[in-house]
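Moderator note: this is an archived Q&A kept for reference. The question asked for a predicted structure of one protein chain; the sequence and the answer are reproduced below.
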Amino acid sequence: MKKEALLGIVLFGLLLTACSSSTETIPENNSLPAGTVSAQDNITVENPETATAPTACISGWKCISANIRAFQLDNCTITEKKTCTLGCSNNTCRTAVPCTMGFKCRNSFTRGYQSEDCTWALEKTCEFGCKNAECQNATVEDKAATTTTPEKPTPAPSPRLSMGEVTVVTVNGQEHNLSLYFLEESRAKIAVDGLRSDWLLEGQNFTFSNGVKIKVTGILFQGFAGGTRAVEYSID
């Protein structure tokens, strides 16, 4: 009888121990030690009101291409465009620079005076070459070789044809109307009796169907208002 009572007491004690273990709970985050940060507390929420707005354009004239200058408003809208004849650089249309006046070597054997509009006058042939705006003197060898050589005549200046001008030339006894049809900084088109040439660079020639052959010997082009725009030519 005592053994049965003792066994009942042991079983009752085991039952109480099992019940107390099942009632234990996990402590909440607010019971963590001071200074400990939970994963939820470490989340950063971005405030949309603090986002940086896109920067507006600065109003003013700007080069929008190699030959176009335009005015841009602060909202980046283009309101006015301008074509730059000589190109656009540093937000400004380029301007032609006038020639410096004075005597110069036009080429290796010609000395002349160049005006501000880039035209030439008082040209002189330098038999022994032109250097630093001066005709060179003959060396001893040159003098010995040229003692019996007659002087070369000074070539006549080439005729000039300007934009809007019509010149009458005579070829093989027949008169022809000559005009400058189109001109750019380094090339030109010439018309003879309404017949038009191809683009011609300085030094090139063109033969028209009526037999007239013309050669461009020089191109004078200044892009600013009132600048010289003409070609020098010869007819074979």
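Archived answer notes: Residues 60-93 form one domain.
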